[in-house]
Design brief:
Layout (H helix, E strand, L loop, with lengths): L1 H26 L5 H25 L5 H29 L8 H17 L6 H28 L13 H21 L8 H33 L6 H18 L9 H8 L3 H12 L3 H19 L5 H7 L5 H12 L3 H9 L1
Length: about 350
């Protein structure tokens, strides 16, 4: 009895945590399509997990709940693919498209059909449709896996380590695969295995991300205490390397560019790079990068007159319109719109 209660609590906890994580990714700023897809994926899996948990402990559950769970399964495959797809597109600095409507449209169409052919009246069809749903899910996992394989070169940073974003990406993909395998193996194991696998994967992912964050903080502390004053010639050489790197590789177009990443690119400590920027240019890292972004924005405002301000901000590496407007005003003394109008006239 106690083991049964513990099993129910553990499975239900996974579903609840999945919902909380979904809310977090939906509200995460800056708003990105990849985060929205991850939030929707976690929500769909949480619904499926909750249905499995309650049905396992209460087989007399209303059939409407069974239909609800199966409908959620139709979304897991496409959402897994879309999360992987848009996450990788952000890494390649490509603008987010609208193809997600086509991928999710078929799922929602089938879900809508369920309103006219409910589980309670068409049990035979619904029970046999699970095979089609799992094949549908599997095909999208194959497509997502292919995208990951094609983009394997950008999954690691410059020193061969796996960033937290990549770790989360692979964890979400592997969790989707694990849950599908768990449901397919139900005849050999137990109906509750799918719910348990999701609970396990969610908690392992959260723990690993927390540990990774602590490790990064500790690394930053070590770098801080290793800071040394550079000689004049070394400082000027480093500054030249920074400027050359920014111009040639256009690192400023990466909205996730950090001081740590820039330092790795030039093979120096981030505290050293920060020191050189402050001593030689009297600029912070953010100001240094934003000046490159604003120069790029000026060119786009004049050469790409059809672009609205939101697209200009995105293509210049800004995470939000407000950040773009504030930086443009601070550096140029005027708004992007007034700059474009003055230049055109």
């Amino acid at each position: 009895m106690i083991s049964g209660q513990f099993l129910f609590l553990f499975s239900a906890l996974g579903a609840m945590n999945g919902i909380f994580l979904a809310i977090y990714f939906f509200s995460r700023r800056p708003h990105r399509l990849a985060n929205s897809m991850l939030g929707a994926l976690l929500l769909a899996i949480s619904v499926r997990t909750a249905k499995s948990t309650f049905y396992f402990f209460n087989p007399n559950l209303a059939v409407e709940f069974l239909q609800f769970g199966l409908s959620a399964c139709l979304l897991i495959g496409p959402l897994t693919y879309l999360y992987v797809h848009y996450h990788l597109r952000d890494s390649r600095q490509e603008a987010a498209g609208r193809e997600w409507r086509w991928h999710l449209g078929l799922s929602f169409f089938v879900i809508a059909l369920g309103v006219f052919f409910p589980y309670a009246e068409y049990r035979f069809i619904w029970r046999h449709s699970t095979y089609g749903i799992h094949v549908f899910w599997f095909l999208y996992l194959v497509a997502a896996g292919w995208e990951l394989w094609r983009s394997r070169a950008i999954l690691l940073d410059d020193v061969g380590r796996m960033p937290r974003s990549t770790l989360l990406l692979l964890s979400a993909y592997c969790s989707s695969c694990l849950i599908l395998i768990a449901y397919l193996s139900t005849p050999l194991t137990s109906y509750i295995v799918g719910a348990l696998s999701f609970t396990f994967s969610v908690h392992i992912t959260v723990v690993v991300l927390m540990l990774r964050k602590e490790a990064l903080v500790e690394t930053g502390k070590k770098e801080k205490y290793q800071n040394r004053k550079l000689a004049e010639d070394d400082a000027l050489t480093l500054l030249t390397s920074l400027n050359q790197l920014m111009h040639e590789q256009q690192l400023y177009l990466n909205p996730n560019l950090t001081l740590a990443l820039l330092a790795k690119k030039v093979g120096s400590l981030q505290t050293t790079v920060s020191q050189v920027l402050n001593d030689k240019l009297n600029k912070s890292f953010n100001l240094y990068v934003n000046e490159f972004r604003i120069d790029h924005a000026k060119k786009l405002l004049l050469s790409e007159s059809h672009l609205n301000m939101e697209l200009v901000a995105e293509r210049c590496g800004f995470n939000s319109n407000s950040t773009f407007f504030a930086a443009f005003k601070k550096i140029t003394g005027q708004t992007p719109a007034s700059y474009r109008a003055a230049s055109v006239s």
